């Protein structure tokens, strides 16, 4: 399995670097935060991403997308991490599209995927019900009726729900919390009667929401995938999302590290460039090694994701756990090595620490994935 980029992936990487640094620098996130923007992202930037094909990166060509590799999705996520780009890309073009690719019927794909590829439809996965990631702890209930279904429950930390057009809701149609069997997926119009969306302010100035479903009536066509059998396609989509979240963490960590190196080469103390102090050199060298190890784990998971017959679970958990710990180390070291200025809001390094904190919990923290990896290995 090669971890090197192919020609198409290198072209995407170069385009991502140029576009995101020019169109979505960290100052753009600061502007969204300070203006209390109602959307939390730039609609104009999202339209540009659609023009470049990014919104349809994982959408099959037959539905108007690029049908590109998951490695490509990881490349975009990594460089969005480097500029802290705020957009619905992850929720829609990675997580939402992957669920549809693995669970939707031909009719559902034909109805939704072309609109997603064109940037005309924002998706949000309504999964979590507690403060920590637990895909099996589903109590949101769907009851069958004579003409369809009725949905009741509450979801937390739903990324981009307040701007979503369509929600993909994980609900229980049988069984009890903690069981894989009995979990089903449903497509829900975000504006349907009984759907209440409350936007939440996050530490990293990004979008999430609490979504309450109050006797929401669904048609039979709302069922996404098999009744009671939604967990298998959901888990595959979550592992793709975990791999891409790890890629974004890698981008956050790499950018924080490179900015810190630049600072060490410029800042003087006691008449010397502080990068000449051996203690700081050792810490920087250790962090460089950790970044290289994390990069190998992330690229490995993304390559496995591009093999439909491969078991992605262990590789995804390894990548997420490793990238989480590395990013935490990188942003902590960055703030410490910048000294007092690193703690100020005027300096951008703090934005990377806040984003790393949010990504640390997204799709499962390092403890969750270390335990999952060990369980998969038979411990």
List keywords for this structure.
four-stranded mixed beta sheet; alpha+beta; Butyryl-CoA Dehydrogenase, subunit A, domain 3; 3 domains; Butyryl-CoA Dehydrogenase, subunit A, domain 2; globular
Lay out the secondary structure.
Blueprint: H1 7-23, H2 26-34, H3 43-51, H4 70-83, H5 89-103, H6 106-117, E1 123-126, E2 141-145, E3 148-159, E4 166-172, E5 183-189, E6 195-201, E7 207-218, E8 223-224, H7 231-266, E9 268-269, E10 272-273, H8 278-305, H9 313-338, H10 349-361, H11 366-376
Helix pairs in contact: 1-4, 4-7, 5-6, 5-7, 7-8, 7-9, 7-10, 8-9, 9-10, 9-11
User: In what range is the share of β-strand residues?
Assistant: 15-25%
Shape label: globular
Radius of gyration over all CA atoms, rounded: 21 Å
Number of strands: 10
- CATH A-level architecture of the largest domain: Up-down Bundle
Low-confidence stretches: none
- What kind of sheet is the major sheet? 4 strands, mixed
Oligomeric state of the chains in view: single chain
CATH class placement of the largest domain: Mainly Alpha
Task: Measure the end-to-end span.
Answer: 26 Å
Q: Strand order across the biggest sheet?
A: 1-4-5-8
Average pLDDT metric: 95
**Which class best fits the helix and strand makeup?**
alpha+beta
Order of helices and strands: HHHHHHEEEEEEEEHEEHHHH
CATH superfamily of the largest domain: Butyryl-CoA Dehydrogenase, subunit A, domain 3
């Amino acid at each position: 399995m090669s971890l090197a980029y192919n020609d198409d992936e290198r072209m995407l990487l170069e385009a991502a670097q140029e576009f995101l640094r020019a169109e979505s620098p960290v100052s753009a996130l600061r502007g969204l935060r300070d203006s209390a923007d109602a959307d939390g992202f730039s609609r104009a930037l999202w339209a540009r991403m659609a023009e470049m094909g990014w919104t349809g990166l994982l959408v099959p060509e037959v539905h108007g997308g690029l049908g590109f590799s998951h490695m490509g999705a990881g490349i975009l996520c990594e460089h969005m991490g480097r500029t802290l780009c705020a957009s619905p890309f992850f929720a829609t073009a990675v997580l939402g599209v992957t669920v549809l690719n693995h669970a939707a019927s031909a009719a559902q794909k034909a109805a939704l995927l072309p609109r997603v590829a064109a940037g005309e439809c924002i998706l949000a996965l309504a999964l979590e019900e507690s403060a920590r990631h637990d895909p099996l702890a589903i109590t949101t209930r769907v009851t069958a009726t004579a003409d369809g279904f009725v949905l009741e429950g509450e979801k937390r930390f739903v990324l981009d729900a307040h701007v979503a057009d369509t929600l993909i809701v994980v609900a229980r149609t049988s069984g009890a919390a903690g069981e894989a069997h009995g979990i089903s997926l449903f497509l829900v119009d975000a504006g349907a009667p009984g759907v209440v969306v409350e936007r939440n302010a996050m530490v990293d100035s990004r979008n999430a929401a609490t979504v309450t479903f109050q006797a929401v009536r669904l048609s039979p066509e709302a069922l996404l995938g098999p009744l009671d059998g939604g967990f298998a396609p959901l888990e595959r989509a979550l592992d793709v999302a975990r791999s891409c979240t790890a890629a974004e963490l890698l981008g956050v960590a790499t950018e924080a590290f490179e900015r810190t190196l630049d600072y060490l080469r410029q800042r003087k103390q006691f008449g010397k460039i502080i990068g000449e102090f051996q203690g700081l050199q050792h810490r920087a060298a250790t962090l460089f090694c950790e970044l290289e190890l994390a990069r190998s784990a992330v690229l490995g998971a993304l390559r496995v994701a591009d093999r439909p017959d491969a078991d992605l679970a262990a590789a995804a958990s390894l990548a997420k756990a490793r990238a989480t710990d590395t990013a935490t180390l990188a942003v902590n070291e960055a703030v410490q090595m910048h000294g007092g200025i690193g703690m100020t809001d005027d300096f951008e390094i703090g934005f990377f620490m806040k984003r790393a904190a949010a990504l640390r919990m997204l799709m499962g923290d390092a403890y969750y994935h270390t335990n999952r990896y060990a369980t998969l290995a038979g411990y």
